[in-house]
Amino acid sequence: MKILYPLICAVFLTISCKEAIKNERKFIAEQSFEEIQFVEPKVNTSLVVNSKEDLLGYWVGNFNANLSDSELDSIYENESSSVNYLYRKITFSIDEIKGDSIIGHSISVGNISPFKGLLVENTSNFEMKVDEYKKEKTDGNFVIRINKSDSIMKGDWVAYYPEEVKITSRIFNLKKKIFVYNKEQKIEMTFFNTDKSKEFVYTTDTVDGKIEEYIDTEYFSTTEKVFEKNASIDELTSDFVSNLTKADIFILRNSIFARHGFAFRDKQLRMYFEQFDWYMPVFGDVKEDLTEVEIKNIDLLLRYEQNAEEYYDTFGR
């Protein structure tokens, strides 16, 4: 079995943007979204920054907890199986630059937050101070810097409401990426749902005349069949889908949305797809971008998913 993983927005003026995925059955992603709107960036294709215009577009990378080693050790000791909130991916989208003002949105764990801020051009670098202005509990402010002739955006984020979040400060190193839909992108790792498990007796032994049971845990997961087809390329058949497990169907269906840059809110899907370098969470709705093959496959997979058999496996098998 393959190796397990270790683990937008406000209305700017009156520009209409993508609508959220609603109730059309064949287009359902992992969950419904409230209506969200944002101005898509005027993407500059230069990946090296020498001018203000080069900043426009998507910056993607890790958005990690800013903690000392002792703080991290304490968290791991007390929450060893539920520390996914420490490490995550962020898409920082600079959508518009007007003089010394920047407007954009950030996307992390499916939360899409509009921001605005001040851009300062120095002789050797650019500096930005940015506020996510919805002022929700997951929002905060960014302090960002990037050297000219460089392609790495570095910075810090601090939460507005430290009492509302587990991590009050994060650090990041982001690279500029151009989003391009590529139907060839593959899923090459087993999916395990760490929130859905059951215990089983994997062996017994007799100690001092008493039978001792040794307990292990197995998790809702995919099988090898999930690697046999690409749901964005291959037109799936009923014969094939009927032999898939519930998790196989779940991942094959959502892999379609992942290739289109869908920003998952579901924790397990987010953790799974963020393992892949090709995955860029940039959109809250990709309904209009789905191909004919993808639409047919989503509809077929949904028809079998509810009644499919669940499969459980242990880590490392």
Task: List strands and helices in order, with pairings.
Elements: E1 57-65, H1 69-78, E2 89-98, E3 101-108, E4 111-121, E5 125-132, E6 140-147, E7 152-159, E8 169-177, E9 192-207, E10 210-221, H2 238-241, H3 246-259, H4 267-273, H5 292-305, E11 312-313
Antiparallel strand pairs: 1-2, 1-8, 2-3, 3-4, 4-5, 5-6, 6-7, 7-8, 9-10, 10-11
In short:
The protein is built from five helices and eleven strands, in the order E-H-E-E-E-E-E-E-E-E-E-H-H-H-H-E. The protein is α+β, with helices and mostly antiparallel strands and 317 residues long. The model is unreliable at 1-36 (pLDDT under 50).
Describe this entry's structure for a reader.
By secondary structure, the protein is an alpha+beta fold. The chain folds into two domains: about 45-175, Quinohemoprotein amine dehydrogenase alpha subunit, domain 2 (Lipocalin), CATH 2.40.128; about 190-315, no CATH class. Helices cover about 15% and strands about 30% of the residues. Helix 3 (about 245-260) runs antiparallel to helix 5. The longest helix has 14 residues, at about 245-260. It is globular and about 75 Å long.
Which features characterize this protein?
317 residues; eight-stranded antiparallel barrel; 2 domains; alpha+beta; globular; three-stranded antiparallel beta sheet
